[in-house]
Amino acid sequence: MSRPEKENPPEIYYNNEEAKKYARNTRIIKIQTKMTERSLQLLNIPEDPPENDELAPVLEKIEDKLSKIETKNTSENEGTELESEGSYESDSPFEDEQNSEDEELLALEQELESLKNRRKSSFILDLGCGSGLSGQVLTQNGHKWVGIDISESMLDIAVQRNTIGDKILLDMGQGLPFRTGVFDGAIAISSLQWLCYSNKKTEIPFKRLSTFFSSLYKCLSRDTRAIFQFYPESPDQIEMITTAATKSGFTGGLVVDYPESTRAKKFFLTLFSSTTIKQVPKGLGGGENLSQKDVVQYVVEDKYKKKYQNNQRKKRNWKPRKKSRQWILRKKERQRKQGHKVRPDSKFTGRKRKDRW
Ligand SMILES: C[S@@+](CC[C@H](N)C(=O)[O-])C[C@H]1O[C@@H](n2cnc3c(N)ncnc32)[C@H](O)[C@@H]1O
After folding, report:
1. 251 in ligand 1 pocket by Cβ < 6 Å?
2. Which residues belong to any copy of the 18S rRNA (guanine(1575)-N(7))-methyltransferase Bud23 C-terminal domain (predicted)?
3. Helix (H), strand (E) at residue 177
4. 132: Cβ below 6 Å to ligand 1?
5. Cβ(230) to ligand 1 under 6 A?
6. Contact, 38 vs 257, CB < 8 A?
7. Ligand 1 atom nearest residue 35's Cα
8. What are the residue ranges spanned by the domains of the chain?
């Protein structure tokens, strides 16, 4: 399959026509949405700690309920101790009341839990936001976002779709012009690989990647993440990307989802804007989590594994040349299995006859 990155620079490849096609394709919409949801999961936005005054009334109600139940239990126990002397089957008139109290307590506990689990509304940078598909997922999840893209046509679609985030026409290879520490995270869905190709002599991919990563590191607040779903073409590209990211201060590694599936397999470069080494999350479907130093090795091995699998497939599907000895032997075998009367094989079977005069 040909790579669009090799055809034209992104601002030309994603022209009006391509942008419209992209925005209408339901398969693309589904895949990009799924990949954004996964990136959001990997982004691991911290929970917003609830304010004390929001928790206090619920906690108070729970304590009140618990103390009431406790008092009732003690008085009931005292009652049963006295009654047990007379020993009769207890058919408590309080049972219904007890159940409704339990339910009330459970509901209160659930309310408390959901308050605690409330997700923080974060400010996310969407790199190569395109037609705003990823931005829509961010909005649905309660986040604010700014999207940048090099293609005017793609941004036009994002505007027509009435997506909520701010959209800026920008080449990320030239660096990001945002304030220091302003974003709580960044995502890039299928855009990073574009930086690995140059369209002019003056465009040096490694230089562009380094400029991009160092400006990204600056505008992310500390201890946040940047998730890049991307399609690397070769181990060299991965090495170039990870070297540029490390040089800019990022730590992290690669998450590989569904490594055994050709279609579902996805790469997510997971970067941490902190100097402390953190564990890279595990990939889905028996997926891998590779630290930066293992990434290239993995991709090289993966490439050879693919080559080996392709060779095996070729071997399995191999067919002898028509009218060759092997072709005839196979055919005879097939006919024997079908119960036909077939002459026995000999050293002359399939032998080429001499031309006669
Ligand atoms: C495959 S589209 C993905 C769009 C969007 N993230 C989505 O999930 O639908 C790749 C996008 O990356 C953008 N892109 C490529 N190179 C870029 C660059 N150097 N700076 C900014 N955007 C770029 C393209 O214009 C295109 O809109």
Report:
1. no
2. 276-354
3. none
4. no
5. no
6. yes
7. 8
8. 4-45+119-309, 49-71+96-118
Contacts of 193 (CB under 8 A, 6+ apart): 5, 230, 231, 232, 233, 237
Q: What is the pTM of this model?
A: 0.70
Residues of the chain with pLDDT under 70: 1, 47-52, 76-98, 113-120, 292-293, 296-297, 299-300, 303-304, 356-357
Q: Which CATH superfamily is domain 4-45+119-309 in?
A: Vaccinia Virus protein VP39 (3.40.50.150)
For residue 237 and ligand 1, the question of a CB distance below 6 A is answered with: no
What's the rounded Cα separation, in Å, for the pair 135 and 141?
Answer: 10
Given a contact cutoff of 8 angstroms between Cβ atoms, the answer to whether 225 and 42 are in contact is yes
Q: Which of 172, 191, 199 to mutate to test the pocket of ligand 1 (most atoms within 8 A of CB)?
A: 191
Q: Kindly give the distance from the C-alpha atom of residue 106 to the centroid of ligand 1, in angstroms, as a whole number.
A: 47
Tell me if 186 sits within 8 A of 138, measured CB to CB.
no
CA–centroid distance, 130 to ligand 1, in Å, is 5
Residue range 295-349, pLDDT digits in tens: 766 766 776 677 777 888 888 888 899 989 999 999 999 999 999 999 999 988 9
In the structure encoding, which two tokens stand for residue 355, read together? 């031309």
Ligand 1 site-directed mutation target among 31, 131, 150, most atoms within 8 Å of CB: 150
How do strand 166-169 and strand 144-149 relate by DSSP bridges? parallel
Dihedral of the CA atoms 227, 236, 129, 178 (nearest 10)?
70
Q: What residues contact 90, with CB distance under 8 A and at least 6 apart?
A: 80, 83
